[in-house]
Design a protein that fits this description.
Blueprint: E1 4-13, E2 32-33, E3 44-46, E4 57-58, H1 72-75, E5 82-87, E6 97-98, E7 116-119, E8 124-132, E9 139-142, E10 153-154, E11 159-164, E12 171-177, E13 179-181, E14 190-197, H2 203-208, E15 233-234, H3 253-261, H4 268-275, H5 282-296, E16 298-299, H6 301-306, H7 314-320, E17 322-323, H8 325-338, E18 343-350, E19 367-374, E20 377-381, H9 383-387, E21 388-390, E22 397-399, E23 406-408, H10 410-413, E24 417-419, E25 427-428, H11 433-438, H12 444-448, E26 451-455, E27 460-462, E28 468-474, E29 479-484, E30 491-496, E31 499-504, E32 510-519, E33 526-535, H13 556-560, E34 563-564, E35 572-574, E36 579-586, E37 590-598, H14 605-610, E38 612-617, E39 620-626, E40 631-641, E41 649-658, E42 670-671, E43 680-683, E44 688-689, E45 694-700, E46 706-710, E47 714-719, E48 725-730, E49 736-742, E50 751-758
Parallel strand pairs: 1-12, 1-13, 15-25, 16-17, 27-33, 35-41, 44-50
Antiparallel strand pairs: 1-14, 2-3, 3-4, 5-14, 6-8, 7-8, 8-9, 10-13, 11-12, 18-19, 18-24, 19-20, 20-23, 21-22, 26-28, 28-31, 29-32, 30-31, 32-33, 34-36, 36-39, 37-40, 38-39, 40-41, 42-50, 43-45, 45-48, 46-47, 46-49, 47-48, 49-50
Helix pairs in contact: 3-5, 5-8
Length: 761
């Protein structure tokens, strides 16, 4: 009687050896009963084709051994599990495996001693090592007939073998399964075959969380070749494109809208069928699946933390519409295969939620993503990160579609994804784990917002004389801000036409966290870079005003806001006598407001204004500044449209620096609303007048009929030929002096425009 037993056959290394990663290659593993001398049990396992009978050993897990031939079929029930151990020995003649599919060219580099399989004729394969021709990059064959080559593969192809009684021709059962083989390097290593029902998950796959990777293709598609030279992209990034193939995202607008609105009606097959209604190529099929997953599947934080394997199953995901990265990748692969598109799940390390700059990676992999085979090449996608993000403070997931992780250029993908197999980097040359750990991590928004590069290119920076400088190059004008230890302090950020420059001065010795954010004109700020600063010396002489906001200095943004042709294009102004004058052109209809802020704590609003006197001549605005003392000051510039309601908007500021300890300038006179920006004050500029003196006045006023100065008495001003109003007044017996104007000669109402204080006697 023939009994069919559905099993999986895998091989697992039982000793600690250096292993290469799992790759796919087709092979035959035949399991049969053979005798072993000196043993009483009639059931011993070996293989009739891949290994000689010398490799035969008994079952290594006696509790699972089969008690007798008549009960074999009954004992291989769904919970059965058998381990068989055998040694790897150097054969007297080359061992062979059944012919592989012709599409399997090689395993690729980095696979230990098992370089690949090559045909020798008559459907039989021999072991060989494929090495790269450095001149042309081609794989060439170099024979190693005396060296043992151990199969390193998982081919996902069904295997058939038979189980019989020792010394008898009676067949007890047929074994069917799929094989996974890992290659240890030393000859003589003990390998374990794990035999269990076909629907059960191999223990080795459970260990590595890779079960989704090895599912069969429902449509019977064969596994494509491993990634090779034609898939590799140059490293570093050549700035040509964010994608690994030419794409016009506008062509997906209709498909994206349709796919995002498809709902689950029954099973996975029906869902894929609905999605493909508007997809007419492999690229569009992959796009439809990608869009649906990114808009419907939520990241399940609890399942990820508990490593709930049930949450990874596609049927469960469709019901809950939640999963973790393994589930995202497994679902994406399964849907692609139903759609007839070759797809693989790739496990590895990631710089994702919780990553810290300079962090090392070891142990179990923490992420999984996919590779899809389109137009003859492999391409990379990550639907987990394409769907949204997890808030670092609340640990809650938010749907936020991210186009960046669809067919990402491999030279960019490697910044936050390090695969288990370096071939899946799709890079030439591939990066090492150490390089991955040390390389700067540019977040996806860095590239989404048009940035090209940043310097330094390492995530950990040491200060030089208490200072760190970071620069970013962008292909479009971009707004930036920064935070040092969570505060916008201790730095000077200046915008450039294509990027920015940031100088940071950590206030203390130690480790500091620097975050850089960016945005377009109509967006919110997004985190793009993060550095760890190592400060061994803090410059205590650098004390920046707390009110020094970013950016510092004029830029493309100030031009956009109506301020052009500045007299001082640099962000820092040095003055030896504590005075300076800043001017710039202002677009018609724009009002300008300025304020001064020191480094010695808060100041009153009156003080903020009184050390600045604003003048307007023709289309230029001039700001005369007198500093109350030595130190560093922020001169802040605001604008608003005159005809529109609302508050003034901050545009930029200058950093004013004065080291002269003798500086002690008084405030300017206080101006009122009727003091027009087109007016000009020549004297007196000091807002505090001496007592018991005759003080001369000279100013240019527009649109007035009369002008006078009022103290204890009233002194009229006269208009000279140059257009200036001139005169003088006595400060005797008064504490305040006002300049007043009559705008309409037919009226008798005077308005205050300037106010001076008089020193006490």
């Amino acid at each position: 009687m023939m009994m069919v037993v559905e099993v999986e056959v895998t091989v697992e290394v039982e000793v600690e050896v250096e292993m290469t990663m799992v790759v796919e290659v087709e092979m035959m593993m035949v399991v049969e009963a053979v005798p072993q001398p000196g043993k009483s049990s009639p059931f011993f396992w070996g293989s009739s084709d891949s290994f000689t009978t010398k490799d035969t050993v008994q079952m290594s897990a006696p509790p699972h051994s089969l008690p007798g031939p008549s009960s074999l079929g009954r004992q291989m029930h769904p919970n059965a599990l058998i381990h068989i151990t055998f040694p790897v020995v150097s054969p007297s003649q080359p061992k062979t495996a059944e012919a592989l599919d012709e599409g399997m060219g090689h395993l690729g580099p980095g696979m230990g001693e098992a370089g690949g399989l090559q045909g020798v004729g008559n459907g039989i394969r021999r072991w060989q090592k494929l090495e790269r021709n450095e001149l042309h990059g081609n794989l060439v064959e170099k024979q190693h007939p005396q060296q043992t080559q151990v199969i390193t593969s998982y081919d996902n192809q069904e295997r058939r073998g038979w189980i019989g009684v020792v010394g008898s021709t009676r067949t007890l059962g047929e074994v069917r399964g799929r094989g996974l083989l890992l290659s240890p390097k030393p000859t003589g290593t003990q390998l374990t075959v794990e035999v269990h029902p076909q629907d059960a998950m191999p223990q080795l796959l459970k260990k590595f969380s890779l079960a989704k990777r090895f599912q069969g293709d429902k449509n019977g598609n064969t596994r494509p070749r491993q990634p090779g030279g034609k898939d590799a992209h140059a490293y570093p990034w050549d700035r040509s494109s964010l994608k690994s193939m030419p794409l016009d995202l506008r062509q997906f607008e209709k498909l994206d809208t349709y796919a995002s609105q498809v709902t689950v009606k029954s099973g996975l097959d029906a869902l894929v069928s609905d999605l493909l209604q508007e997809a007419h190529s492999d690229l569009e099929r992959v796009r439809a699946i990608w869009i649906w997953i990114c808009h419907h599947i939520e990241y399940d934080i609890e399942a990820a933390q508990e490593k709930d394997r049930q949450a990874f199953k596609p049927t469960t995901i469709l019901q809950t519409q939640k999963t973790n990265c393994d589930g995202y990748a497994g679902l994406f692969e399964r849907m692609c295969r139903i759609a007839g598109v070759q797809c693989m799940t790739v496990p590895g390390y990631s710089k994702g939620f919780g990553y810290q700059p300079g962090q090392s990676f070891s142990g179990e992999f923490d992420h999984a993503w996919n590779a899809v085979f389109l137009e003859g090449r492999w391409h990379l996608v990550d639907s987990t990160w394409g769907s949204g993000l997890v808030d670092s403070t609340t640990s809650k997931f938010t749907f936020l579609y991210n186009e960046f992780y669809f067919l990402t250029h491999p030279a960019l993908f490697i910044e936050d994804h390090f695969p288990d197999n370096k071939n899946w980097q799709l890079l030439k040359p591939p990066q090492s784990l150490r390089q991955f750990e040390n390389n700067m991590y540019h977040k996806s928004e860095f590239y989404n917002k048009g940035m090209l590069s940043a310097h330094p290119q390492t995530s950990i920076i040491k200060t030089v004389n208490g200072k760190v400088t970071v620069t970013i190059e962008s292909c479009a004008p971009t707004l930036f801000m920064f935070m040092l230890n969570g505060k916008q302090e201790h730095g000077l950020l200046s915008l450039r036409k294509n990027g920015m420059k940031l100088d940071v001065y950590p206030p203390t010795v130690g480790t500091h966290k620097l975050q850089i954010f960016a945005k377009g004109n109509s967006e919110i700020y997004s985190s793009v870079l993060e550095y760890t600063l190592k400060c061994h010396y803090a410059d205590i002489d650098v004390r920046l005003p707390a009110e020094l906001h970013q950016p510092v200095g004029p830029s493309w943004f100030s031009e956009q806001m109506g301020i052009t042709k500045p007299s001082h294009p640099e962000p820092v102004i040095y003055t030896s006598d504590g005075r300076c004058s800043v001017s710039f052109s202002v677009e018609e209809g724009i009002s300008v407001l300025a304020s001064l802020h020191g480094d010695d704590g808060p100041v009153t609003e009156e003080t903020q204004r009184r050390y600045i006197f604003q003048l307007q001549w023709e289309k230029r605005t001039e700001l005369k500044v007198q500093l109350p003392h030595a130190g560093k000051f922020a001169l802040k510039i605001f604008v608003k449209k005159r005809q529109e309601p609302g508050n003034y908007v901050f545009v930029f500021n200058y950093l004013l620096c004065c080291t002269n300890s003798k500086v002690n300038w008084p405030v300017f006179p206080e101006s009122f609303g009727n003091w027009g920006q087109e007016n000009e004050l020549l004297e007196p500029l000091s807002g505090v007048l001496p007592a018991n003196r005759n003080v001369p006045f000279k100013l240019k006023l527009h649109g007035v009929a009369k002008a006078l100065v009022k103290g204890q008495d009233t002194w009229p001003l006269t208009l000279n030929r140059e257009g200036y109003w001139e005169g003088s007044c006595s400060t005797a017996g008064c504490q305040e002096v006002y300049v007043m104007v009559l705008e309409n000669a037919n009226h008798n109402f005077y308005s205050y425009i300037l106010k001076y204080k008089v020193n006490a006697q």
